[in-house]
Design brief:
10 Kd Chaperonin, Protein Cpn10, Chain O, ATP binding, 40% strand, GroES-like_sf, mainly beta, Chaperonin_GroES, two-stranded antiparallel ribbon, 1 helix, 105 residues, protein-folding chaperone binding
């Protein structure tokens, strides 16, 4: 089992194991934006800084002060993390310190 020492959403087994104090988020994409029937391309609309936690490093999972869990939707800092595309998903590898809060639905 490749993720025995990390906490990861097994249903979405991505093959990226975060190390140190890092977390992997699946980035939430904003829906298409239209203003008065005119489509605004991606670079014209503000980027979303919301993601779903799909993997947490062992070090972060042992930190009792870190309250977010797998599958939580979180808000993260604007310029934080490294965006990557993996298995046709947009992911963000981010430090736990850049998570600002959990979004309760």
């Amino acid at each position: 089992m490749p993720f025995a020492n990390s906490h990861i959403n097994k249903e979405e087994c991505y093959m990226i194991k975060p190390l140190g104090k890092n977390i992997v988020l699946e980035k939430e994409e904003k829906k298409e934006t239209f203003i008065n029937g005119i489509y605004l391309p991606e670079d014209e609309k503000s980027k979303s800084h919301i993601g779903k936690i799909i993997a947490i490093s062992t070090e972060v999972s042992k930190d009792e002060a870190f309250e977010a869990k797998i599958n939580n939707k979180v808000l993260y800092r604007e310029y934080a993390g490294t965006e990557i595309e993996f298995n046709n998903k947009k992911l963000v590898l981010i430090s736990n310190e850049d998570i600002l809060g959990v979004i309760e639905e």
